[in-house]
Amino acid sequence: MTEHENVRGRALKFAFPLTIPVMAGYLFLGITYGFLMVSKGMPMFMPVLTAAVIYTGSMEFLMTDILVSSFHPLSAFVTALVVGARHLFYGLAMLSKYRDTGWKKFYLIFTTSDETFAVSYSAEIPETVDKSWFYFWVSLLDQIYWVTGAAIGGICGSFIHFNTKGLDFVMTAMFVVIFLNQWIKDSKKGRGLLKDHVSEFVGLGASVVCLLIFGADSFIIPSMLVILAVLTLLRKKLEKMEMSPAAADKIRAKEKEDEQ
Amino acid sequence: MSTLQIIITIAVVVGATMLTRFLPYILFPSEEKTPDYIRYLGRVLAPAIFGFLVVYCLKNVNFTGGSFGIPEIISIALVVVTFVWKRNMMLSMAVGTVLYMVLVQTVFA
User: Fold this and answer.
1) DSSP symbols for A129-178
2) CA distance B52 to chain A (A)
3) How many CB pairs lie under 8 A apart between chains A and B?
4) Which of A238, A249, B72, B75 could crosslink B100 through cysteines, CB 3.0-4.6 Å?
5) Beta carbons of A110 and B34 less than 8 Å apart
6) Among A197, A168, A157, A159, which Cα is nearest to A180's?
7) Neighbours of A70 (CB within 10 A)
8) Where are the domains of chain A?
9) Confidence category of residue B14, pLDDT binned at 50, 70, 90
């Protein structure tokens, strides 16, 4: 074995166990996605193709709806932008970590996903393991899990026929869980129901109002604009609120000092 | 959609998704130089988008007629309760979806 193979092998050995939870999740979700796409009348290769090139689960689930609706490329573009907006912040967080990864960098950025980010960002990589190969294996393995899941789902969906009515609720369930997860995280700020969840309420409120005004077929872009506008207007207030607990702590600490 | 329209839609979506992935590396070579407004959006935009996505999924539900959105409400309630209880994303999605499928194929068929 050459030294080079050694470096790759060690990184893979360290990376693989960390991706096992992702494997479980991606296979399950990927299979469901493949099944759903085929059940909407799409050919077997469609879930595999979209899984490989879009590689954003939430956007792909939305695609099962978009591809069978009428043709709205601008709306699809904006939806993909906002659904993928979180990648911008994963990118910002990974800027320094992905530095000096050479030719692998393009692939690492291309395969940015929630789970890959979570594993790569939080991993404590030992000195003996090559960082760029570690990131590469995590990214590649995760993508393999996802595409494999979509392929299994697509193939099974083409041969196994059962009543799939209601299967698309899996998408609703996914977003409800993601929303709820965010809600629980934000509740820890402990500033009260309304103040902790301003963003969530803005998102829900703006979308419901735009849905009622513009209707189901054309409320996406108005919703996004309203959300962006409201959050921009609330910036000063929200940033002040973010500051206040820390500022309050400082004041309290100072008061204690003065007492002593 | 025609085949060409499907190809265009996929291409547009791939382009937009790639833009979100590559943009930070192109625009902000270092974290320190990122404008405060962008960092602020980074903190507050995601929860709002998640809220939007829930509404998006329910956009075609008829709350004033038909099944009055009852299968959706019951199934979402189950998703919420199981997730708060077990904190397992896959479990909540699975039970919620199965319940919904049973409801719309039997009781609300």
Assistant:
1) S-HHHHHHHHHHHHHHHHHHHHHHHHHHHHH-----TTTTHHHHHHHHHH
2) 5
3) 253
4) B75
5) no
6) A197
7) 9
8) 3-159, 189-259
9) very high
Min Cα–Cα distance to chain B from A178, Å? 7
Q: Which residue is listed with tokens 């899941």? A: A149
pTM, full prediction? 0.76
Crossing angle (nearest 10°) for helices A169-187 and B36-57? 140
pLDDT tens series, chain A, 260 aa: 567 778 999 999 999 988 887 887 788 889 999 999 999 999 999 999 999 999 998 899 999 999 999 999 999 999 999 888 878 878 877 888 888 888 999 999 999 988 898 888 878 899 999 999 999 999 999 999 999 999 999 999 988 888 888 888 887 898 899 899 889 988 988 888 888 899 999 999 999 999 999 998 788 888 988 998 999 999 998 888 876 655 556 545 655 665 55
| The three-state (H, E, C) secondary structure of A55-79, written as one string | CCHHHHHHHHHHCCCCCCHHHHHHH
What's the pLDDT score for residue A93? Answer: 75
Q: Which of A105, A174, A236 to mutate to test the interface with B (most CBs of B within 10 A)?
A: A174
> How is chain B split into domains, by residue range?
61-109
Q: Give which of A65, A88, A98 to mutate to test B binding, by max B Cβ within 10 Å.
A: A88
A5 CA to chain B: closest CA distance, Å?
30
DSSP annotation of B63: S
- How many residues are given for chain A? 260
Which position has the token pair 């790759």? A8
Q: Tell me which residue of A6, A5, A19, A3 sits closest to A140, measured CA to CA.
A: A19
